[in-house]
Specification:
With 186 residues, the protein is an alpha/beta fold. The chain has a domain at 61-182: Transcription Regulator spoIIAA (2-Layer Sandwich). The chain contains 5 helices and 6 strands; from the N terminus they run E-E-H-H-E-H-E-H-H-E-E. A 4-stranded mixed β-sheet has the order 3-4-5-6. A two-stranded antiparallel ribbon has the order 1-2. Helix 3 (102-116) links the parallel strand 3 (89-94) and strand 4. The longest helix has 15 residues, at 102-116. The N and C termini lie far apart (40 Å). The model is unreliable at 58-66 (pLDDT under 50). The structure holds iron/sulfur cluster. Residues 26, 28-31, 34, 36-37, 66-68 line the site of iron/sulfur cluster.
């Protein structure tokens, strides 16, 4: 089996996936809501380490796309993965626009999913974790998390707005409504 350094972070829908760790930590490490890799120094694993992993298993690639790039960057990266014949799984973060930008976030994400047309989408719900910059911003009164009902409306709007054709999951512990939908919505 391939080696993995640290905690594995992946959507529940990918619990059976092989995960090849080509980088350790996060090269961006700036998203204000994310506590995941703050203590970890980013590094790219050596070619020989990667080759060993590829030899050890059938290659699969999980792409975890988050903030730190523009929507156009994410679309371009996703389309490159698909053009390479690799199944594409992406994560969307409900509530990251806060209460004020919930609808806007739903619509923009729905449009982006249409453009990329990933094979799988896993929706998580934003959690404001103490110690993150987002938590400090919230404490200062400059971010208000959307209510559970608003998050559900955001999910509904996102699904209505997108014409993606893959599987859409909302089955993470952070979600208010467990869903597994073959898109597009009928
Ligand atoms: S959410 Fe942001 S900081 Fe956290 S791992 Fe992803 S890109 Fe890095």
């Amino acid at each position: 089996m391939p080696e993995y350094d640290g905690l594995i972070i992946r959507p529940p829908s990918e619990s059976d996936s092989l995960i090849l760790q080509y980088t350790i930590g996060c090269s961006h490490n700036q998203c204000i809501f994310c506590p995941a890799y703050k203590q970890k120094q980013f590094r790219v694993r050596s070619l020989s380490e990667m080759e060993q992993d590829v030899l050890d298993c059938i290659p699969a690639l999980r792409v975890w796309m988050q903030k730190g790039v523009t929507a156009a960057d994410m679309a371009a990266a996703g389309l490159r993965v698909k053009a390479a014949g690799i199944k594409l799984s992406v994560t969307v973060l409900l509530g990251i626009g806060g209460s004020a930008r919930s609808r806007e976030h739903a619509r923009a994400t729905g449009r982006l999913l249409t453009k990329i047309d990933p094979d799988y989408v896993g929706a998580l719900t934003t959690m404001v974790v103490p110690g993150t910059l987002l938590h400090r911003i919230e404490q200062a009164g400059n971010f208000r998390m959307a209510s559970p009902f608003k998050i559900l409306a955001e999910l509904g709007e996102m699904l209505e707005q997108t014409e993606m054709r893959g599987l859409f999951f909302s089955n993470h512990a952070s979600n208010y409504l467990p869903l597994r939908i073959r898109m597009p919505l009928q």
